[in-house]
Design a protein that fits this description.
The chain has 316 residues and is of the alpha/beta class. 20% of the residues lie in helices and 30% in strands. Bound molecules: FE2/S2 (inorganic) cluster.
Length: 316
Amino acid sequence: MSNSLISVRVQAMRFEAKGILSVELVALDDATLPPFEAGSHIDLHLANGIVRSYSLLNSPTERHRYVVGVLNDRNSRGGSRYVHEQLRVGSSLTISVPRNNFPLAESAKHSVLIAGGIGITPISCMLNHLRSQDKSAELLYCARSRTEAAFSATLLQQAGVSGHFDDEQGAPPDLRAYLASKPKDAHFYCCGPTPMLNAFEAICAELGLPNVHIERFAAAENVTAVQSDEYVAELARSKKIILVPAGKSLLDALLDAGLDVEHSCREGVCGSCETKVLEGEPEHRDGVLSKSERASNKMMMVCVSGCKGKRLVLDL
Ligand code: FES
């Protein structure tokens, strides 16, 4: 588990849209909370034993609270349903410190933000932050309908914000046409459901857009954390050599060997188990690292990723 947890209580919950609640968390002792950047998320350790990551949507200038938005996902595996049905104002829980896998390139001349559904949580925080810095930014907010689009009334009043609601338009957005109409040197960000992220990535690659950023909160489909070949992990700092047998994840092999490896989601989406790779070629299966980070082979998510060869040397 994360070795830096914070005890918080639910200070307030608010209905934001059909199926979406915002949850305001404050420290149990009302202390100042660790700082965060736009795009960051926290892991909620829920009383049913489930750990889930949620993006922060309030302003990074606030230090007295964290606010997350939670969709009561019809495919919930227990996290969002627990928040909607069991978590109450006054409940206490533990959370991780904020982590940012979706940082803004603050020096960009122009930023194009695309949100699908609950993906608006990090994206609205990023938009507000860019606007507060007088940076040029625009937002395309997509959802099945306005009633399912949190914060849409406020956001759509702003210049540079457009909405696409499938029930009004009768079809999903034409992302290709939208992206092709933007300056190539802009920075492009997308957070939303997996099919949208996959389409966004494919279209950006096709258009040759170089500055592309995505945030995934669902593990890619059919990801397995194990492989059929054994390999060796050498731990440079602890001076240990461990065998990762076929059928066991690298994270479990490390934990079994007594290593204190920070981890949370175990699905390759939260980023907490990121580990530096000193030698060897990881088999990347996570949803956190960008293409270039993967290609560098300098880091890996040990909860789901494995080894392409027979040996990895890790900075552990
Ligand atoms: S534990 Fe979340 S990415 Fe590995």
